[in-house]
User: Fold these one by one.
Assistant:
Number 1:
Amino acid sequence: MDGLVAWWESLGAWQVPLRVLLIIVGAIVIRLILQFVINRAVRGIVTGVKKKQGIDDTQALVATPLAAVRVVQRTRTLGGVLSGVVTTAIVIVAVLLVISTTFPNAAGAFSLITAAIGAGLGFGAQNIVKDVLNGLFMVIEDQLGVGDVVDLGPATGVVESVGIRITDIRDVNGTLWHVRNGEIVRIGNISQGWARAIIDLAVPYESDIDEVEALILTTALELADEPKWKRLILEKPEVWGIESISAEAIVIRLVVKTRTSAKDDVARELRARLKRTLDTAGIRLPALNSIVLTGFEGAGSIRGARPPKTSPLPVVEQPRPARAPKTPKSPKGAS
């Protein structure tokens, strides 16, 4: 021990740079250790959920109970937020230690400067504190998670990341919105619980309403009974009746309660089948104004079409007809 002290005193002017180097290396090591612990905890929880559900791919959780999906999303989001908090805290502490080591006599003056800066930036820093606290509470209370389709007011789309200050939202057009957590005053989350596919079908005014409603309901029930769609539909489809009447058409509403991630897929398949059913019945749909997707309707389509997976059909290769052998050409000049 005495030899180590003597060696340290013999460094002389090199003591300060060495201390600064040790502080930087220590901060990096501590950050790596804490990051490893956070990543391991997140990985352990996610792997446990997957193993409990008997799956390997996170995307397969879409067809599992909602609680499993929310645990995975919430854990990953919390892991990202904690990583940001740990990094920020370690950097601040390391900077303060480096300053106090480099300028040991400036501790009192540094305290006064810190107090003056704190008083001057108090009103500006409150927005940063508001962003951080609001982001933490949003994640802790499970208001949103990575992968959720949400409407935050300023932007609507899929949550790509939740930071300590900023939440990134990707809308249906591919635009990435950076929304400050402190500016989020309400959250509409359509990835929690269940969703409802609503189809408003306009039929000619002179159509037999009872017949049309029976055709619509029969088509929807046939879809709900098929194995590859049954797991995505939570309740039997319902015809709610006439939604509106005009001089050209009568609008009939069909609703289907689905899993949150399957609303658009079910709605698209239903529209296609209803169109074929009405064509077969000789009911021609009237021409109406085009519909522009906005809000949740547009956000829900951001992932594109994701029809249920089915087993591949066997491919039977047809044998190729045998080619006739080529006749050798006779050399020129031969008789």
Number 2:
Amino acid sequence: SVNLSQMDAIACFNLSHYELCFPQLNSSCRRTKRPHTEAVLIYILLSSISLLTATLNLLVIISISHFKQLHTPTNLLLLSLAVSDFFVGIIMSFQILLTDGCWFLGDLICSLFFILDFIVTSASVGTMVLISVDRYVAICIPLHYSTKITVRGVTICVCLCWVCSILYNGLIMNDNLKQPGRHNSCSGECVIVINHIAGVADLILTFTGPVTVIIVLYIRVFGVAVSQARAMRSHIAAVTLQRSETVTAKKSELKAARTLGVVVIVFLTCLCPYYCSSLVGQNAMFGVTSVPFETWLFYFNSCLNPVIYAFCYPWFLKSIKLIVTFKILQPDSCRANIL
């Protein structure tokens, strides 16, 4: 048994590690106290990741939007992904405020924060599905690619993806918008509740279903890509000029498939822990007063995508050079040859 003096010592030890978010309120939540050096390092690290994520994806957005040579169906999908990743960088700046466990921006902003987070997540997953379909058609049925995958068609699909994400997440978050903060247990908390049916539907529509489609399509893509690569190696010595052009085109498509395959694999690696943790501890309640590792891993994926482009797409490095040197402000810079 523990005597009273020991219990008092334990209570004092616990209280020494916490302080109130709002000292003037008896109903205030408690915030975690950290050593000054540790707190500074955490803020610098997370702020750097947030700034880098927003900056790199903004460069992708400017590059694809500005240069006409980059107005291709595949790049429009990358543009959609960059937009969602840019918003993730913005969301991360709000998450930094939560490292000590307190939310100071009010209940309405809390609900809007969650809606933006859910919309961006849904749009990212939807865009990944579209990227997988794009690569499937390009590699598996290349003769129909130019007719089935067009700039206009991809633009419509991307717009529908975002509109559906907004409407869907607005629907499942409707109750939390009507009465923001009604599920908070103390002042300084940010919690929303989604009913069980909506939670199951969300898990299927934004994780299980899309991930299954992505995996199935890319298994097929890589199977065909491997067989095409073997065929090209076996006939490379006896090609004509016309055949050489065809081989070059195929190599370009295979390289794009590999690059986007890396993007998809990294995305799934960062996404699965996030949803699996939600699935294991699924109680339809989500709080942002504590930010677990898997959430930051999911957000960090948005910083990795532009880095992958920089290593795999020469046009991205060329466009960055033109942007940072302000040469994109010159007349007809949108028609510059960067491929």
Number 3:
Amino acid sequence: MSTETHALSTVTPRTPEQWIQRAAEVAAILAVDAVDRDRAGATPYDEVRLLKESGLVTLLGPTEHGGGGQTWPTAYQVIRTVATADGSIGQLLGYHLLWFWAARLVGTKEQIAHVEAEATKNKWFFGGAVNPRDSDVVVADEGSTIVFNGRKSFSTGSKVSDVTVLEGTLLDSGTHVFAIVPSDIEGLTFHDDWDNLGQRLTESGSVSLNHVRVPWEQAAGFVGKTFQPRVYNTLNVPTIQLVFVNFYLGIARGALETALTYTQEKSRSWLHGGYSTAAEEPYVIDLYGDLQAKLWAVEALADAVALEGQRIHENAWEVTAEQRGEHEVRVAAVKARATDVALEVTNRIFEVTGARSTASREGLDRFWRNVRTHTLHDPVAYKRREVGRHLLTGELPEPTWYS
């Protein structure tokens, strides 16, 4: 990763605008060799180090421990900005921020205070072995400890993480258990098997858990071995779905900006069109205008839904099921639109950059590959179904791992 032409400001960000500017500085550094890093597919140790040095990993951390003290609407903008340069690193940052927030989602007040203090002061980078499609991780109660055994197909952030969020079900009751453990804990093995079409630097390979032993007091949200439920426990899904939305939009923005530069500097006008430059071609102008308008529209919706969600985050201990459900419907709507628009932008830019833009050295394909890979996370048709059912019958989505 090159830092020769760009550097981080020495001024510590304080306001949302300054944090978004810090994210833009990180993006500028990542953009320099994004194509080469995507092609190499190496473990992004340097990239995560940059996220730590920039302060972005502690963006949501308490200010009294050196964190940014920012809100989720700012965090989403930061994720989106980083993803304009590198979708993989935008995803890594987004997942990290979600798992950084995991204690607030399911923990007791004492656990929240402890985890956030330690995570902020030590600049922990979070990974998560929490793939809901795999239900084979079981948790045994062995007195003062619980023991995790099983396997997960995906564990984003694996080898670059300092700590990992584990999830499994208690053998006797089937109750879900979350715990945060050091990523080098005995029995936790990350497999170097992430080899997918896109998002190549997310370290999202599989993980095995072989007698990973954790003290009961680290089981998030449990008091005396009994889980203390609240509606806010289920906010992990709409929060992570908005993380998805924002790195999709960042990737799409990066694709459009990269294509625009290519059109202005390299594209040739069509020999039978009668125009001296590609930028004068009416169909080129029309398509850029169409894609920009669609992207602006979904960005605006994403920002509005983020602000709606922030009101729930600020009322975490009192939020109702109805408030949560109405928010999830809005999240589903923006997830569906962001998916469609990001796929359209990253695909159709080739129509206005031309045949030579498909050369590997240009790397324009990485934007589509990244969006196409991650938008398959869960079927967008089911997001539209949530919106349609609510519209027709007033039904609110039941909280699940995907809704």
Number 4:
Amino acid sequence: MQIIKGAGEWNPPTGAENDWVENLRVPDLSVGTYCIPVGGVDTQSPHTEDEIYVVTSGRAKIVTPDHTAEIGPGAVIFVPAGEDHRFEDITEDLALLVVFGPAYGSRTQDQ
């Protein structure tokens, strides 16, 4: 057992980039924290792993090719591998607990 301290907590980004921190990594999954400030721009690309976001604080919209939804604290979002997605209209500093299965970046683009 391991307690993952700080996972999902707001941490202001330092510089022009949004803040991504990997808090735990094992072969079958990874857990991290993604923070985007009010008015920030989410520039991520689709991932090769399945992904779950848990909104721990903040408000925004999540946009995929087929759907747009308002999100806030407590929202849980599943994004399948390869699906384009983006957080937009960030009206409150956004902190997300992120779970990747398998671990982030462990699949190649060919899979």
